[in-house]
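Response to reviewer comment R2.3. The reviewers asked that we include at least one raw input/output pair. We reproduce the pair for DUF2630 family protein here without editing.
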Amino acid sequence: MDEQGILQRIKSLVDEERELREKAESAPPGPDHAPNRARLERLEQDLDQCWDLLRQRRAKKQYGENPNEASVRPAQQVEGYNG
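Raw output as returned:
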């Protein structure tokens, strides 16, 4: 995926995240929120992976390497960077 593709994916994920958060704020609390919470967690992981991939690509390009060699890292690994 090239940089534009990654940025489009990030925008799509952010839009979906915003929509789910708005729905969660307006809905009464209850067990129906479990699927949305799970989806929000997955969206956050996907966003972290996309940002990580974008940073990898930009770093490779900056140092004269091939940005296409950057790859998506496992969510657990990327999540560990943010903690």
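Residues 3-81 form one domain. Residues 53 and 72 are 6 Å apart (CA to CA). Further pairs are available on request from the corresponding author.
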